[in-house]
Amino acid sequence: MMPSNEDPLISLNLANNLKEIRSRLGNSPDIIIRKFELVTSHIEVAAVYLNGLNDKNIVDEFITHIMAFDTPNWGGPEVKSVSGIYQFMKDKALSIGEEKVLNDWKELFEALLSGNTIILVDGLAKAISGNTSGGEVRAVTEASTQVAIRGSKESFTESIGTNLSLVRRRIKNVNLWIETMKIGAVTQTDVAIMYINGIAKESTIQNLKQKLQGIRIDSILESGYIEQLIEENKYSPFPTLYNTERPDSVAGNLLEGRIAIFVDGTPFVLIAPTTFFMFFHAVEDYYQRYDISSLIRLLRFMCLAISLLGPGLFVAALNFHQEMIPTPLLINLASQRENVPFPTFIEILLLEVTFEIIREAGVRMPSPIGQTVSIIGGLVIGQAAVQAGIVTPAIVIAVSLTGISSLATPAFNMALSVRILRFVIMFIAAFMGLYGVCVFSFIMIAHMCSLSSLGVPYMSPMGPFIAQNQHDAFFRLPFQFMKTRPRLISQKKHNKRIR
């Protein structure tokens, strides 16, 4: 049974302590124990660490530095006693950085499993921990999911320490604060929140802390766990937290008053609070001229409308509202349907499902093969379906345009939500026509207006309408006009925008 936090180390005997460590870790082969005997005092000392969680060079330096004082000419009776050795290690020998004196088993195992090296002295009911964490980690590479033509090529890695430093390099400010905690009863995953003190709202920070501290779960293996556990409306199809693997994107959002959530073991960092328009802003928008960025943003919102409403409107027009289609086009579409055995809705549903299968297969397969399968598979199946008389060429064009438009959304999780809602709108259009599409659209917008992220309205600055924040919603104005931060996100006394 694990002792409480107030209990000291179980035994003053070094052998018993080492036996307890082996026992609790199941005699795992990655436990490395290096024993030493001090020449001057003949007292046994042991260094314990887990292989693979440490940088071996730092481990060797740490142990060598700890043992360096044990020389015959150091002299003095104070180092011939256990208390004298402990005091020397504590006051003079601990210069590696992030050393800590451990008083109980819980602290010892937390340090050991975090990659630290533990120093145990025979006859001493305490341990000394040195931060030697390291091991094999992925190098900083280019972002794979949020590619930008212009801007930084760095992306986050699976190391939380590396990720925090990547943001520190961009915001060299003493008010950039970091708070850490461990979440997950079994995994004890390191989680950190980062914000700029004085810009981020104190109420938002406290709200996020309460949500994180209230999480009760065995494991946190990715930031997606945190995202699902702290979101306010768990049954909404729309994501209310933004994730990114780009340090410059995190830095820009921090400067607006938002909070970043880092989780050890994943390159994806969460940003809160989040608004709907964030999912259609790319970090590259701020590196290009305002007119180019504004046009590209407008194109993204057009692609959103096409990918969400395109198939539904096509089905509604052909089934219920033929008078809206120009006569020559209507005759052409009717001639194409002469030998097709299925109604329009079934045609477009079959093709949409087929393309979703191809897209999912392309994602799960190795990259070179996956891209080939996605492109060639879509072309071959579409052409073969037309020649076989299963679907019409117009349906293939509509579905292809819809699929390509959905790829224009910068945030992948928002694109997934749009793909789900597209099928819902298709079903409604097949049974209720344009009237049903309009009613569902109004319901969807009303639902989005009811959402919030850490207390911030999801549709701001449009709902509620905030005139002073319209410079960075649908369009991006020149920097000289972007004088304020988002009013509902940053503190009022710091309304000057830095980015």
Structural commentary:
With 499 residues, the protein is of the alpha+beta class. It folds into three domains: 14-130, no CATH class; 160-274, no CATH class; 287-456, no CATH class. The chain is 43% helix and 12% strand. Strand 1 and strand 2 form a beta hairpin. The protein is elongated, with a radius of gyration of 30 Å. 33% of the residues are buried.
Uncertain residue ranges: 1-6, 72-77
Helix/strand/pairing category:
alpha+beta
Beta-strand percent range: 5-15%
How far apart the termini lie comes to 53 Å
As for the number of domains, it is 3
- Output the number of helix runs: 14
Mean pLDDT: 85
What overall geometry do the principal axes of the alpha carbons give?
elongated
**What's the total number of strands?**
12
Q: Give the strand order of the largest sheet, numbering strands 1, 2, ... along the chain.
A: 1-2-4-5-3
What percentage of residues falls in helices of 4 or more residues? 40-55%
What is the chain-wise order of helices and strands?
Answer: HEEHHEHEEHEEHHEHEEHHHHHHEE
Please describe the biggest sheet, giving its number of strands, its sense, and whether it closes into a barrel: 5 strands, antiparallel
Radius of gyration: 30 Å
